[in-house]
């Protein structure tokens, strides 16, 4: 199966980044979000990203213009139904994802591949809710999608081999390192990364260290390109908490549970870059 048109549901930070990557690879992209304001913000993110790539020489101006022209947006879910492959990039909660996949199953041809960008939820559970478990895969892009080279391509026990092979080839065709992963909580990267980020948060309370110093130490001493607390701010405190909860539910290991400090930040709406305040303060 060849992927020509990509549907994207959710044109927030992740969805817009995925859309940009697909457009740069020459795909036609149809993106859906809940209202015109969300679509306008998403299109602006995509166009800004393409413009930056052109400024830095990663794309010609003509290629950037062509990519912009291949982006279509709609508030109607039916608009993505004709895509060969649809990537879901909505809120990181199982119930809304399951409902979306059930709806897409009723709208799309039987051959359409449905992909979730979940970072920690069970792809198998989403597939089971979809009505077409053999056509559901995980495509876990990392944030920011245009810059991060990895895509975890998640295989469930019931996926059709041609669907998985197509998804793997699609991710590779985007210029990404497409790594096959079993459908285990956290996949490969987050199973290791989430507890490390949790440890960094707990250390703040245990030692009284300043967030700036923790991040500076990890950058200088461990070669991290970004400190762990700035990384949580980029990922989103809400996403970190949800991912930690999913891992804790699966393994019941203390290090996997979201620290109390993160839960307080979530309750206060201090979600990181997306809210303007997390461990650090940002201009919005």
Topology, please?
Elements: E1 5-9, H1 13-24, E2 28-32, H2 36-55, H3 61-69, E3 71-74, E4 85-88, H4 94-107, E5 113-116, H5 123-130, E6 136-141, E7 150-155, H6 161-173, E8 177-182, H7 189-207, H8 211-222, H9 228-235, H10 237-251, H11 260-268
Parallel strand pairs: 1-2, 1-4, 2-3, 4-5, 5-6, 7-8
Antiparallel strand pairs: 6-7
CATH topology of the largest domain: Rossmann fold
Q: Based on the coordinates given, report the CATH architecture of the largest domain.
A: 3-Layer(aba) Sandwich
**How many domain modules?**
2
Mean pLDDT: 96
Please count the beta strands (DSSP E, at least 2 residues each). Answer: 8
Structural class: alpha/beta
Distance between the termini: 42 Å
- Large-scale geometry: globular
Give the strand order, joined by hyphens, for the main sheet. Answer: 3-2-1-4-5-6-7-8
Helix residue percentage:
40-55%
The low-confidence runs, each spanning 5 or more residues with pLDDT under 50, are none
CATH class of the largest domain: Alpha Beta
CATH-assigned homologous superfamily of the largest domain: NAD(P)-binding Rossmann-like Domain
The total count of helices amounts to 11
Largest sheet: 8 strands, mixed
SSE succession: EHEHHEEHEHEEHEHHHHH
- Taking all Cα atoms into account, the compactness measure Rg is 19 Å
Structure described in brief:
The chain has eleven helices and eight strands.
Description:
The mean pLDDT is 96. The protein has helices spanning 13-24, 36-55, 61-69, 94-107, 123-130, 161-173, 189-207, 211-222, 228-235, 237-251, 260-268; strands at 5-9, 28-32, 71-74, 85-88, 113-116, 136-141, 150-155, 177-182. Helices cover 49% and strands 14% of the residues. Helix 4 runs parallel beside helix 5 and helix 9 packs across helix 10. The chain has an eight-stranded mixed beta sheet with strand order 3-2-1-4-5-6-7-8, with helices on both faces. It starts with a strand and ends in a 16-residue tail after the last helix. It has two domains: 5-182, Rossmann fold (3-Layer(aba) Sandwich); 192-268, N-(1-d-carboxylethyl)-l-norvaline Dehydrogenase, domain 2, CATH 1.10.1040.50. The protein has eleven helices and eight strands.
């Amino acid at each position: 199966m060849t992927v020509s048109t990509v549907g994207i549901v959710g044109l927030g930070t992740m969805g817009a980044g995925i859309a940009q990557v697909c457009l740069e690879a020459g795909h036609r992209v149809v993106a859906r979000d809940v209202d015109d304001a969300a679509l306008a913000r998403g299109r602006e993110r995509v166009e800004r990203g393409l413009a930056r790539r052109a400024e830095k020489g990663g794309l010609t101006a003509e290629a950037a213009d062509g990519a912009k022209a291949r982006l279509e947006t709609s508030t109607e879910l039916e608009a993505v139904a004709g895509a060969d492959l649809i990537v879901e990039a909505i809120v990181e909660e199982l119930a809304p994802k399951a409902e979306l996949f059930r709806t897409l199953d009723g709208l799309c041809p039987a051959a359409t591949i449905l992909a979730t960008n979940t970072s920690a939820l069970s792809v198998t559970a989403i597939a089971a809710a979809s009505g077409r478990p053999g056509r559901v895969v995980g495509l876990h892009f990392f944030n920011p999608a245009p810059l991060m080279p990895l895509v975890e391509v998640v295989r469930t026990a019931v996926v059709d081999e041609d669907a998985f092979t197509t998804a793997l080839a699609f991710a590779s065709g985007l210029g990404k390192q497409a790594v096959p992963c079993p459908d285990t909580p956290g996949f490969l990267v987050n199973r290791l990364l989430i507890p490390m980020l949790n440890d960094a948060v707990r250390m703040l309370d245990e030692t009284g260290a300043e967030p700036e110093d923790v991040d500076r130490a990890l950058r200088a001493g461990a070669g991290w390109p970004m400190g762990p607390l700035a990384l949580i701010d980029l990922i989103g405190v809400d996403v970190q908490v949800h991912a930690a909860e999913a891992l804790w539910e699966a393994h019941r290991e203390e290090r996997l549970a979201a620290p109390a400090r993160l839960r307080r930040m979530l309750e206060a709406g201090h979600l990181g870059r997306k809210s303007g305040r997390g461990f650090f303060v940002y201009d919005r």
